[in-house]
Structures are given as structure tokens and as C-alpha cells.
Amino acid sequence: MAKTGVLIEIENTKVKETSLGVMTAAAGQEIYALVLGKDGPAVKDALAEYGAAHVVSIIGDIGASPDLTAQALAGAVKEYQLDALLGTAGATGRDLFARLAVILDEPLVSDCVAVNISDKTAKKSHFSGKTFATLKVDASVFLCTLRPNTIDPSPAPCSCDVLEFAADVTGPGRVRIVETRQAKEGGPDLTEAPVVITGGRAIKAAENYSMLDECARKLGAAVGASRAAVDAGFAPHTMQVGQTGKTVSPKLYIACGVSGAVQHFAGMKTSKVIVAVNEDKDAPIFSKCDYGIVGDIFDVIPALTEKL
């Protein structure tokens, strides 16, 4: 049984569901749930429900710089002699794990869809999602981030203790966080959302995304855009889903007026259920979806919103 750390992300005082999915990926190991800050005791019960044997609050002057946060994580890895450390391949995980890999001088496997900690193997997408490779890592500490929502959280209750690790780090770090701005208030992060509704070129204008926003609020969804919509100026690049945008893996993906080009499919092909709405019955998206609706998105989406 390997000592396995899981970097826990907390939002609005609650553990993110994506972090619970990573804990499920570590099931069967001795799990150390690493919490940045003093919230460890507050989330102990939630983490114990999903298999955490130890909840570690990492305290210290670490929030002002990702460099210092990565140094603190490296200190925790050494303090508890962890054999592996897993996290979510979201904005936080991508940033911290890359820095951590440099500090520990260990290889990193990022954005994986499956992991075997005992064998130190991870499965990830290659060649724009055309195939998957299983990579075996020769490392003292197995570092891996998992694509959000690829593994559904599964309760595995156990007894749990709370530890506190005082990180011995000193500022200011090479990068300092001055301000954090959120693009849209209240909506889930696009890469971590359980439901994504995306508008393509057929959305016709930026203001028409309000139709998708209204539907998204009913679904608890994030709103995305295809590259064609972004290139046309209908949406910012931060909303783009695809090979040159963000990779998403929601439980439900609704493509509205998206043709289904291979570059877009590469960014959402691991979605659990794909629903397509398009006027063109021969659009490539219909060969890649679970459910298809041939129709005008300006008729279908308002009707869906009304039903919801």
C-alpha cells in the first residue's frame, strides 16, 4: 500500500467534486489529503468519506506565490515520505505540479484519464485524442494529474486524523499573485464543470450567448465556444473548447451549432454523454454524439430551457 498524497482543492468552503474523483483514483492506498491553508479540520469528514486516512493542513506564507506553494508541497512530500502525489489537471494543478516536478526532479504525467499507483502507470490521450497511451514512470515519487470529471467520486469511508504541516518557505518567490479576476460570477469553471453547453458559429452573434447562459443556469453548466465562434468574435478565447482551447470532460456535453471538426472533438471526446443540436443533418458531430437533434438552436435551446 503506497503512501499517496492528493492535492485537495476547496471552493466556497467545500471540497471540489473533481478532487473527490482524484481520491477515488487513489482508492486502496494510504491517502494523505493535502489541504492548502487551515481548512483541514473543516473538511475532514468530507474527505474521510472518500478514503482519506490523513488530512494535512499545509500552513505558512504560501498563498502569495505558486513558487512558494510548490515548495510547501515538496516539503510535505518529503515530511510524510509520500510515494505518489495526485491532483486535478485544472488551472491550479497544471501550475503547481509542473513547478513541483522541477523542485523534486521527478517526471510528471499530466492530464491523465486513468492511473495505477501501484504500477506507476497512467493513461492519457495522444494525437488530438485519436489514441490513448499507457505510460510507465520510473520515479521515486509518482507525480500525476487527472483530467477533471474522468473518474466519478465513489465513497470509501474510513477513520481519519488531522495533521498540520508548517511549511518552511520564504518569499517572495519568482512569481507573485497580485490579483485574481473571475470572468463570470457564479458559473462553474469550464474545465471542471459537470455539464458544458457550447455554442458554435451558428450562434451568429456574441449577444446570443445569453440564450446559452440561461439554459446553463438551469443545468448548473459552464458555457463554452467552438474555435469558429471565437474566430468570428462571438466569444473570448477563454471560452474555447478544442485542441487549441480547453479540454473538458463533463458528464454531459451539449454542442449547439457545432460542426464537430476533429480539432473540437479532441477537446471534449472524453465527455460521458454528448448531445448535438445542428440544422445540418450531415454535420460530422452527429457521428460522434450519443443523442442528436436536427433543428435550429434558436428553437431547440429555448424549448429545452423552458422544460428545465
What does it look like?
There is one protein chain. The chain is of the alpha/beta class and 308 residues long. Helix 3 (66-79) crosses helix 4 (91-104) and helix 5 (209-219) packs parallel to helix 8 (297-307). Helices cover 24% and strands 28% of the residues. Helix 2 links the parallel strand 4 (30-36) and strand 5. The model has no long low-confidence stretch (mean pLDDT 94). The protein folds into 2 domains: 3-166, Rossmann fold, CATH 3.40.50; 195-307, TPP-binding domain (Rossmann fold). The chain has helices at residues 17-25, 44-48, 66-79, 91-104, 209-219, 227-231, 262-265, 297-307, and strands at 3-8, 10-11, 14-15, 30-36, 52-59, 84-88, 108-116, 121-126, 131-136, 142-146, 161-166, 195-199, 222-225, 252-256, 273-278, 291-294.
Characteristic terms for this protein:
308 residues, alpha/beta, Rossmann fold, 2 domains, 16 strands
Question: Can I get a quick summary?
Answer:
By secondary structure, the protein is an alpha/beta fold. The protein is 24% helix and 28% strand.
